[in-house]
Write a structure and sequence with these properties.
Blueprint: E1 2-6, H1 12-20, E2 24-28, H2 31-35, E3 46-49, H3 57-60, E4 68-71, H4 81-86, E5 90-93, H5 96-114, H6 117-125, E6 147-151, H7 155-165, E7 170-174, H8 180-186, E8 189-190, H9 193-199, E9 202-205, H10 219-223, E10 230-233, H11 242-250, E11 256-259, E12 279-281, H12 290-308
């Protein structure tokens, strides 16, 4: 019997499948109880964690028989991939369903800013709605005809490109590796990063956080941004220089900012970003929907079934493919 440890309670659809499958036994434990050493971990071969759980060398080393880590989502920046590989541990992520949900959240942030949704809600609820045409502060804009730049053309960035194109926007992207085949399929164009910031009306950051992309959106880029543009970040807070962003907002250079991710989470209530009317903030909920949670949970079971029933490795979900050089799965 293969023992699975969950660091969160997954969707009931997954738990039901595991209950029906006599090969697996599972339990759910709090992350803090794992960290504090309150749970015996030697018998667990499989760990299922959320992308926000930090799985560094110290945590991974607590599991003496760990063979598989499955991330219930796309991000793996909090996992020590190199250490896992050195121990022969397979690390999987499940990005597809999260990508759709995060992309829709990015669009929601854009619309909330272009159409003044949050401000309009506040004015209506506080009884400040006057008769006649709306105040100038409530006059929004449209996406149609705008130049939209996407930073990072992975699954999320590609989904954003598909959705934003339907609004009649002209879509551009920057990625560490140019993708001509995707350009053709999505009818989008490549721009270098500096030019994208100088020329685009709306910029959506979807790039994964790695050592190479940490603080990628630095002060130089933010200072060069087109006057009045909108900046959206649904990737990770670590890719963006928040101090430079606050400075640009104070100078009135940006038309709006929508953020779902931050360097410090939860975001402190006194953080400078909370004081601007043209900033919309959400508490890292971009990847959470009934659609993503349900389908991602079922994908966890598919990976487990492939590994332990079919004795095959689902390469499409494997993060650390280099581990295959030293691991023979059977």
């Amino acid at each position: 019997m293969k023992k699975i440890l969950f660091l969160f309670r997954p969707n009931n659809a997954l738990l039901e499948k595991l209950d029906e499958d006599t090969l697996f036994e599972h339990s759910i434990q709090k992350y803090q109880d794992i960290v504090s050493g309150q749970v015996a971990l030697d018998s667990y071969e499989i760990l299922v964690a959320a992308p926000f759980h930090r799985l560094d060398r110290k945590i991974i080393s607590l599991f003496s028989n760990l063979k598989v880590i499955i991330l219930h989502g796309s991000g793996y920046d909090k996992v020590d991939i190199n250490y896992a590989s050195s121990k022969g541990i397979l690390v999987f992520n499940i990005p597809d369903y999260i990508a759709v949900t995060v992309a829709e959240h990015a669009i929601a942030l854009i619309l909330s800013l272009t159409r003044k949704i949050v401000l309009g809600d506040e004015i209506t609820k506080r009884g400040r709605w006057s008769r006649g045409p709306p105040n100038r502060e409530l006059v929004g804009t449209v996406i149609r005809g705008k130049r939209v730049g996407i930073v990072g053309l992975g699954r999320i960035g590609s989904e954003v490109a598909k959705l934003i194109s339907t609004f009649g926007a002209e879509v551009f992207y920057w990625n560490r590796r140019r993708k001509p085949e995707v350009e053709h399929a999505l009818n989008i164009s490549y721009l270098d990063l500096q030019k994208l910031f100088k020329e685009c009306d709306i910029i959506v950051i979807t790039i994964a956080l790695t050592r190479e992309t940490e603080n990628l959106i630095n002060k130089s880029l933010i200072d060069s941004i087109k006057e009045g543009s909108i900046l959206i970040n649904v990737s990770r807070g670590g890719v963006l220089d928040e101090s430079a962003l606050v400075e640009a907002l104070e100078k009135g250079k940006l038309g709006g900012v929508g953020l779902d991710v931050f360097k410090e989470e939860p975001l402190p209530t006194n953080h400078p970003l909370t004081k601007f009317k043209n900033v919309v903030l959400t508490p890292h909920i971009g990847g959470f929907s009934d659609y993503s949670l349900y389908n991602t949970s079922l994908e966890v079971y598919r990976i487990l079934y492939k590994l332990f029933h079919e004795k095959t490795i689902p390469i499409e979900n494997l993060v650390n493919k280099d581990v295959l050089e030293n691991v023979k799965w059977e």
